[in-house]
Amino acid sequence: MSRLLTYLFGRLPIGWLQLSHNKARLVAAVSGVSFATLLVFMQLGIMGALNSSTVAPYGLLSADIVISSEEGNTLTDAGEIARARMFQALGVPGVADATPLYIGNLPFTLDNGSTVSLLSFGFDVSQPEFVSPSIAASFASLTIENTVILDRDTRGMPASVIDALMAGGRYEFEANGNTLVAVGTMNIGGGFLADGMLAMSDQTFLRSFPARTSSAPNHILLNVDDGVSVDTVVERLRDALPSANVKVLAADASAQADLDFMSSERPTGIIFGFGVFMGILVGLVIVYQVLSTDVADHLGEYATFKAMGYGQPFFLGIVFEEAIVLAVFGFIPGLIVSIGLYAGLRAVTGLPVEMDASRAILVFLGTLTACTISGAIATRRLAAADPADLF
Amino acid sequence: MAESFPIEASGLNHFFGEGEARKQAIFDLNLNIERGSLTILMGPSGSGKTTVLTLMGCLREVQDGSVRLLGQELNGANEAQLVSLRRRLGFIFQAHNLHESLTAAQNVLMGLQVHGNANPAKQRAAADHVLDLVGLADRRTYLPGNLSGGQKQRVAVARALVSNPDIVFADEPTAALDKESGHTVVQMLKTLGQTRQTTTVMVTHDNRILEMADRIITLEDGRVVSDRVPKTTP
């Protein structure tokens, strides 16, 4: 280690030697940085799960443009829009096809007596081109009255039911006074949105939600003609439709708007953002504390080096070297423990908590930056190393 | 100016404190020190000998008067000039001030790396050689915590000498040593002066080494009261 660093720095790795000389301090510092890294990873992991939950339903869809009511918040938390808008939209040049999308929360009582809510999507099953191929394949079976496709990750649903469904079986259950038959499964992973999800035909949907009417879906999905720019059609639609109560967004822009809403307007996003901030702060304080104590403990040696003719850059180099060592050594255990905890969280909650490379790199760079900032603050103590005090 | 003295002080005054508490520590000091000599500064505590040493060693700012060190005026010199000047000096402190995390050889190496490190292998060889000279060849990889007081002081001497400094400043280098080790250290400094023309200025109370000096200057209350050559100079 020492030899490698000597080679890297082109000088004795004094920072490393200093840190590793005091093993207790090194362990304390590294665990502090690991803990801060862990905190940030956990917050980001849950925030990432929230985000992927939010946009997961878009994975069901295969549409270019989404028209929604202005009063809605996100895809699954939407207001109602007059179906007449769909016919207006079909008249706009460049629009190839359109379909209504109905969304509602269906309460369902499990065998153990607890009630879960199933987020239900009602599609026009004669238009499978508006959904992803995995669901489209099942649309033929959904034409039969009261049949549904059930989310594999539905909380509280016995594994035997899912296994039977995946083996081609059926599962009959009652919800909202209506008997539904699950004939297949899908995999969406919208852990934060609901306990589970259902896909069904619009007819089954309207039967399950007697208060809803076919004339007021939640969204209108559009596909544009081949070779026509989606943005151009979005502009034309905005001109054609009354802007007061209708929002027209390209599908990816709509997903982004949902993310923005969840991270800035809903308390959950703010809470996790705050958690990340706290994690960074804890790390900063710990590293600052360790580095400044270390500088203070070595003032005599530093003063000697100053007397020998070493300049300020040399001392800054030592402190930053220590900061980088702490960042690297703290990050690795933090990352490993986080991956383990992510797996645990996934198993317990069914939330899509995943470690991806970009997050790991981001947190590593953050750790490095935070440690360097702490180091920079700690170097202020260097000024106290006065060689004239040595005599 | 080739024949000038390595250290020339003239009209040097120094003050400590501010305002009412301002107290003069050095009064109109004039002193030239010859190249290759071993000069001892003596005097009771508070006489200003350490202040003189730090002023000459670029460790304290010259307030009034002039100190020319190796031809460079210290009064008004900037930090960069002082740093580059310090690299031509060697310091030996009363406390050894070795870095506890570095081995004996690494501590000595620090005295060389201040000049850059273009040739690490050569530097290591030089550091080992100086450790041999101070009789610590078998202690190279020891941390200071595992060395005796005398051994630590000898490492500090090796660190000060490894870069062939023009001037060595030593503050009570023998205080922590027994008679024999103290004698060895001073003899090393003296030999260095004779072979490499290294100038040594040493503050000491230690009567055991006085006879080895070329010149003994005694200070009292910031003034030179005696400047003599010891009787038994060999």
TrEMBL record, chain A:
<keyword id="KW-0812">Transmembrane</keyword>
<keyword id="KW-1133">Transmembrane helix</keyword>
<feature type="transmembrane region" description="Helical">
    <location>
        <begin position="26"/>
        <end position="50"/>
    </location>
</feature>
<feature type="domain" description="ABC3 transporter permease C-terminal">
    <location>
        <begin position="274"/>
        <end position="386"/>
    </location>
</feature>
<dbReference type="InterPro" id="IPR003838">
    <property type="entry name" value="ABC3_permease_C"/>
</dbReference>
<keyword id="KW-0472">Membrane</keyword>
<dbReference type="InterPro" id="IPR005891">
    <property type="entry name" value="DevC"/>
</dbReference>
<dbReference type="Pfam" id="PF02687">
    <property type="entry name" value="FtsX"/>
</dbReference>
<feature type="transmembrane region" description="Helical">
    <location>
        <begin position="270"/>
        <end position="291"/>
    </location>
</feature>
<keyword id="KW-0813">Transport</keyword>
<protein>
    <submittedName>
        <fullName>Putative ABC transport system permease protein</fullName>
    </submittedName>
</protein>
<feature type="transmembrane region" description="Helical">
    <location>
        <begin position="357"/>
        <end position="378"/>
    </location>
</feature>
<keyword id="KW-1003">Cell membrane</keyword>
<dbReference type="GO" id="GO:0005886">
    <property type="term" value="C:plasma membrane"/>
</dbReference>
<dbReference type="InterPro" id="IPR051125">
    <property type="entry name" value="ABC-4/HrtB_transporter"/>
</dbReference>
<feature type="transmembrane region" description="Helical">
    <location>
        <begin position="323"/>
        <end position="345"/>
    </location>
</feature>
TrEMBL record, chain B:
<dbReference type="Pfam" id="PF00005">
    <property type="entry name" value="ABC_tran"/>
</dbReference>
<dbReference type="InterPro" id="IPR003439">
    <property type="entry name" value="ABC_transporter-like_ATP-bd"/>
</dbReference>
<dbReference type="GO" id="GO:0005886">
    <property type="term" value="C:plasma membrane"/>
</dbReference>
<dbReference type="GO" id="GO:0022857">
    <property type="term" value="F:transmembrane transporter activity"/>
</dbReference>
<dbReference type="GO" id="GO:0098796">
    <property type="term" value="C:membrane protein complex"/>
</dbReference>
<dbReference type="InterPro" id="IPR017871">
    <property type="entry name" value="ABC_transporter-like_CS"/>
</dbReference>
<keyword id="KW-0547">Nucleotide-binding</keyword>
<dbReference type="GO" id="GO:0016887">
    <property type="term" value="F:ATP hydrolysis activity"/>
</dbReference>
<keyword id="KW-0472">Membrane</keyword>
<protein>
    <submittedName>
        <fullName>Putative ABC transport system ATP-binding protein</fullName>
    </submittedName>
</protein>
<keyword id="KW-0813">Transport</keyword>
<dbReference type="GO" id="GO:0005524">
    <property type="term" value="F:ATP binding"/>
</dbReference>
<keyword id="KW-0067">ATP-binding</keyword>
<feature type="domain" description="ABC transporter">
    <location>
        <begin position="7"/>
        <end position="233"/>
    </location>
</feature>
<comment type="similarity">
    <text>Belongs to the ABC transporter superfamily. Macrolide exporter (TC 3.A.1.122) family.</text>
</comment>
<keyword id="KW-1003">Cell membrane</keyword>
<keyword id="KW-0997">Cell inner membrane</keyword>
<dbReference type="InterPro" id="IPR027417">
    <property type="entry name" value="P-loop_NTPase"/>
</dbReference>
<dbReference type="InterPro" id="IPR003593">
    <property type="entry name" value="AAA+_ATPase"/>
</dbReference>
<dbReference type="InterPro" id="IPR014324">
    <property type="entry name" value="ABC_heterocyst_DevA"/>
</dbReference>
<dbReference type="InterPro" id="IPR015854">
    <property type="entry name" value="ABC_transpr_LolD-like"/>
</dbReference>
<dbReference type="InterPro" id="IPR017911">
    <property type="entry name" value="MacB-like_ATP-bd"/>
</dbReference>
